Amino acid sequence: MANRSDIMGLHGLKNKPSRNSFDVSARNLFTAKIGELLPCAVYEMNPGDSIRIDASYFTRTAPLQTAAFTRLRENVQFFFVPYSQLWKYFNSQVLNMTSSASGQDVSRIATSPFANEKVTTGMPYVAYSALHQYLYKMGQAARAIFPVGDFSAKFKNSVFDNNGEYRWSASSKLLQLLGYGRFDYQNMSFEDFSDKPVVGMTSLPNLSVFRLLAYQKICNDHYQFRQWQGYDASLCNVDYVTPSGSMDLSTQLEQVDFASGKNAQRLNFLDLRFSNLPLDYLNGVLPTAQFGSESVVSLSNGTSKASPSDTSGNLGWTSGADGGALSHTDSIPSDALSLSVLSLRQAYAAQKYKEIQLANDVDFASQIEAHFGVKPKHADDTSYFIGGSSSMIDINPIVNQNLSGDGLADYKASPIGNGSSKIKFTADTYGVVMGIYRCTPVLDYAHIGIDRTLCKTDASDFVLPEMDSIGMQQNYLFEVQAPSFDGVHVGFLRDQNFVKSYGYAPRYSEYKTNYDKYNGDFCFTLGSWVTGLPANMIDEICRHNLSSMQIAPELFNCRPSLCNSIFVNQNNYLVSDDKLYIGMVNMAYVTRNLSRYGLPYSN
Questions:
Q1: Which of 343, 444, 461, 512 could bridge 516 with an S-S bond, Cβ 3.0-4.6 Å?
Q2: 582 belongs to a structural domain
Q3: Full-prediction pTM beyond 0.85?
Q4: What residue ranges carry the coiled-coil annotation (predicted)?
Q5: CA distances, 178 to each of 208, 434, 572, 583 (Å)
Q6: For residue 557, what is the DSSP state?
Q7: Contact 31, 437 (CB under 8 A)
Q8: How far is the C-alpha of 423 from the C-alpha of 361, rounded, in Å?
Q9: Looking at residue 403, what is its pLDDT?
Q10: Which domain holds residue 509?
Q11: CB 271 within 8 A of CB 33
Q12: Coil, strand, or helix at residue 244?
């Protein structure tokens, strides 16, 4: 019998959208500092959109002091962030459907056993005026705190310091790159702010926060060394905003008070983020000797009654005064008790589980792949890496052989870099494709530490293959730097700290990897010829972190000051101090389910 109800209920009613390709290519010129993670391309994506990007970039640098032995690696990487990862209510809200045709509830989220979350059409936003008020009040607070003149000591590690850059300047740069408007504070010192109250800008639009959250999400997911750096969900997730409440995040910014320091120490979604350095022998250590707490089989002390086994009378003391066998009862230490093979197997398995778990990223897909060997096709909690490229900035020497004056040739340099990448991606949900530019030095260390292999002064210090797989070994502070005498420090220094461990590495790692170093006068008067961690910076890092021994995070932190020595301008506070000048051309073509002209009679 034919199904006569196949037209009832309109179950098969679907839209037939147009599908066309659009050229969204654009050139983007911007400046950067070493280590900054900068959004260099942003494309909003709808379900079914396909994008093809051919990105190329050309880089010059600020003037260099010398033709330095410097290696700078720059790369551009593209990611896709679904909006549903930023706000769990997004999929319900974006349908623009607060109830069914009969007026029934369509919510998919419950607030209690007896109620559902309300569905509206609102999305989280921030007022344009709130962004300016936040940044200007930050500058005003800095002006009230910092002295006129030399303020560097008070500025460093303060709430206004974003890795050596004015925090308001870095945030302003981020907002401009993401298209949030005009923010002149990126080139304003704290002395340029006035005491006048921040008023006005009340008629300007409210702005979506998803683009800012997507940037923070990418930084959290892909640019963190997870063993030392945590995952800060407050930077990229607004699940605390509910459809039944206020969608305005401006009130969250008002809770940050830079004058009193309230909530100012924590990063927020307006802060620019920085990259880490590539890991090597010195900065790639781990915080613990093994992942997770030790798996220990619980053994308690016990008592045992011991009697001589020789009953032949040869021992002479086998009989007590009563003629019975002489025995002795005592407590036996736990390490002398017997242990079942099953307990050992359980402890070993538990330790293996902990190490595999904590050695991988904390997202669902990484954990499932680590434990089961199968990578889920869709990771609902992690943004997608979709492609990118990497290249080196070449430093071409320029020799001025004008023999006038002192007759010495003058070495300068003209650094140039270029690269390109091609990606293709099709979105199956709402989200944003974002390109991230960064430039990091291939770091060299002042060779002021003691080589680990020189500490082998006993036969047991040499490699024993049987001991190769029993766990990690300590890395000691004297491998990073060792003490020395100079005109100020005469006599023996307190050297107890130099034999402390600052982290753990794979056993016999001194035979398995290495690090880049420089020696001789490059450690002294030729500092402008190299980039890396000089002796004074290493000494400062160690001194300021001795109590906590959190030295490794400072060693792999890519701060702009790492390359100060090679540039003429050695400040990093403002965008006028940016050292990298990038011209990027993004040839982008996107195919969308949209009409080309938007007219009723056009496709």
A1: 444
A2: no
A3: yes
A4: none
A5: 11, 10, 21, 17
A6: B
A7: no
A8: 25
A9: 55
A10: 444-566
A11: no
A12: coil
DSSP secondary structure letters along 64-79: BSS--B--EEEEEEEE
- pLDDT < 70 stretches in the chain: 1-12, 290-339, 377-379, 399-411, 486-495, 603
Identify the residue whose tokens are 């045709």. 101
- 554 neighbors 566 (Cβ within 8 angstroms): no
Phi, psi of 359 (to 5 degrees): -80, -10
Buried/exposed code over 477-496 (b: 16+ C-beta within 10 A; e: otherwise): bbbbbeeeeeeeeeeeeeee
Two structure tokens written together for 348: 């070993």
* H-helix or E-strand spanning residue 513: none
Residue 495 lies in a domain: yes
Angle between helix axes 364-372 and 341-359 (nearest 10 degrees) is: 140
Q: How far apart are CA 116 and CA 118, in angstroms?
A: 6
Q: Are 191 and 143 in contact (CB under 8 A)?
A: yes
Residue tagged 């071409």 (tokens): 396
Residue 243 in any domain: the answer is no
Tell me how far apart the alpha carbons of residues 474 and 42 are, in angstroms, rounded to a whole number: 44
CA distance 517 to 531: 10
Hey, which bits of 192-301 come out as E strands? 206-208
pLDDT value, residue 579: 95
Question: Residue with structure tokens 């974003």?
Answer: 162
Written as six digits, the tokens of 291 are 């992942």
Q: Quick one: which H or E segment has residue 111?
A: strand 110-112
Domain count, the chain: 1
Dist. CA 440–CA 33, nearest whole Å: 9
Map tokens 């690269």 to a residue.
419
DSSP codes of every residue in 362-405: SSHHHHHHHHHS---S--TTSPEEEEEEEEEEEEEEEEE---ST
Computed from CA positions of residues 474, 477, 481, 487, in that sequence, does the dihedral angle turn out positive or negative?
A: negative
**268 token code pair:** 């927020």
DSSP per position, 4-58: TTTTGGGTT-------EEEE--EEEEEEE-TTB-EEEEEEEE-TT-EEEEEEEEE
Q: Is 555 left (phi over 0), alpha (psi -120 to 50) or beta?
A: alpha
Length of the chain equals 603
Nearest to 220 by CA among 234, 204, 209, 210: 234
Contact 87, 124 (CB under 8 A): yes
Count other Cβ atoms within 10 Å, centred on residue 518: 20
Among left, alpha and beta (phi > 0; psi -120 to 50; other), residue 371 is: alpha
The closest of 194, 138, 145, 144 to 165, measured between CA atoms, is 138
Question: Strand, coil or helix: what is 578?
Answer: coil
Cβ-based neighbour number of residue 57 at 10 Å: 24
Strands 165-166 vs 161-162: parallel, antiparallel or unpaired:
antiparallel
CB atoms within 10 A of CB 572: 24
Q: What SS3 class is residue 586?
A: strand
- In sequence order, which ranges of 159-275 are alpha helices (DSSP H)? 167-177, 210-222, 250-254
User: 215 exposed, middle or buried (CB, 10 Å; 0-12, 13-18, 19+)?
Assistant: buried
pLDDT score recorded for residue 298: 60
Q: How far apart are CA 112 and CA 246, in angstroms?
A: 20
115, 57, 109: which is closest to 87 by C-alpha?
109
Neighbours of 45 (CB within 10 A): 23
